[in-house]
User: Fold these one by one.
Assistant:
Number 1:
Amino acid sequence: MSEPAALDMPAAVSAESHVTEVVHQARTSFYWAMRLLPKAKRQAMFAVYAFCRVVDDIADGDLPAGSKLAQLQGWREEIGRLYGGHPHHPVARALQTPIATYDLAREDFLAIIDGMEMDARGPIVAPPLRELRLYCARVAAAVGLLCVRIFGAPRAEGIALAEALGEAVQLTNILRDIGEDAGLGRLYLPRELLAKHAVTDTTPMAALRDPRLAAACAELETLAAQRFAEAQAILARLPRADMKPARLILVVYQRLLQQLHASGYRDPERRVSLSKAEKLWLIARHGIF
């Protein structure tokens, strides 16, 4: 099985430098949340983010499904080498210290790869709600489980927070990206909600133009809002200083969900987003420094 790409990187380029550059190039909205952390935790988060970025790029790339799955299998093998103490890829090497320091679980990295395989096998179109929630657990909650260990959350509360906030964020992303996803042949809205609101043609572009789609979106929004409320209740019981990044992610994505609600999903091809100024206002308003 072929190994993950970039193994020929010059030795002079350190693993830490590599993952830092990945984060900077990604221009991710999570960057400011990661910047709130002390250096060691911040670098650990950069390594986790870089891992997520590289496997997500495989799943979303232009290669045939078989090639994508082969590359993701290569990452399964790389995770085995990582936990065996001899990783090859610079991202995996950058994960060595965080894994040792924060006791990050192998199964969470593998769950993320499981989620990427769901996308890599072919476009997801109107999945059953059960399958959608499994997808969210793999591509978002599993990431959250790694993050809360780095943040320092107690185990039980950390698991509950990762599951609630991870699902809420992923559902918000799905609602925000309906138009973009349809252009890629994807429709993540669950078939039960589409059927309930008489969206019978689930071909992504056809569903996008069905005026009844808005009602299905609004109902999925309700689930996302419930999960945000659960995450907020858990965060209220945890130390504010340790959980600043999680609080920032919650307030930013809650605000994004509010804007989606205000849009009424009347133009799903228009992508709703927050400006940098709005994000800074949220940081100030909620005392997240």
Note: Residues 6-12 have pLDDT under 50 and may be disordered.
Number 2:
Amino acid sequence: MKPGCLKKKVGIAILSGCIGLSLNVLLQPVPVAQAVDIFSVLGTAIQGAAAYKQTDKVIKYYNNTEEGRTELFYQLQEKYGVSSNAYRKQQLDEMIPRLEKGIAVSDPTVHDQPYYYFINRQKTFNASCGMGHVISVNEGLYSLTENQDEVAVVLAHEMAHGQKDHVASSIRKKMNVAIGAGMLGSAVGGSLLSNLALNLAVNQIDKVAITKKDEWEADNLAFQYIIDSGYNPGATAALWQRVEEKYGKSKNSFAGEIFSPSDHPTHQQRRENYVKKLYEYSGNHVTAEAGVVKVNGKSFVKPATAEGMSSAERSYFILGNLAAAYKKGHARQKAHVSGSTVLLGEQPIIKCASGDPSASELADLLNRIK
């Protein structure tokens, strides 16, 4: 078999796994027909160390070369379609470079491989980052949230997976298991046993390929990326509050278990992780509990439902503003009012809506407890 032909077949096998990756980059089980194809290519065409070497070469092609990244990008577009929504495309054109600059504060290697991205036509809530820093955002993401800060959290999470090569690592594990299973089947000479062993091995790896540790790493990196990109850090917790309100507390209730599979953090765990981070970011001054924003242990405000958000979701944006005020030193200044907005120094804290206490009341209270 010619090397070019082999590369193409192995590449397609890897690509099929990559396309199935979701927001937490979970590899979905490989159908029997596909697994048999992997066996036939890897188990019969190449053996032993040569197979592992070839797999590594193909992964590097899609993950590290412009040719491979471009090929993957266009195949993803062909498979999922490209959204015609010009407004959202323009928004993404502004957000991705902004996030890349934020990422560069802690990881300058992002400049070596800028992200490819597009909005696809899929209506389910999802986004994915495949190999080669290729991001695909579902139109359905915007059915959950139109808030730019929350969309940025989704993108930052995916870009964290990209920066740490979680996808390439998971696919490498998947392919190596396929090689091992294929070689075993060839040794015993039983085609039925070979197919069964291959499918069981590949499916098992699929379920644990992106570990809980990787998910936490992506979440934690996303928090820093959001801060360094100038978005409201409270959006990190607010997004998970919105997810819980829309899809329920059970992670299994999420669309197809794609976003939060059984071995990954729950919505509540992710939200509370971010609340803890916001508390630490503020110098241990501010937090939020049951929708109540607290400053130095004292209740500040339980905001009304407004701006398309529940009281609890909105509380996390206020928390994010307060945390930033303390981090940047604005909290040393006196709280004041501009129109319906309460500010600490130059940092807006809350824009009062119907059902909230007045801006002057909140400014006075904040000055007493901050």
Note: Residues 166-188 form the longest helix (23 residues).
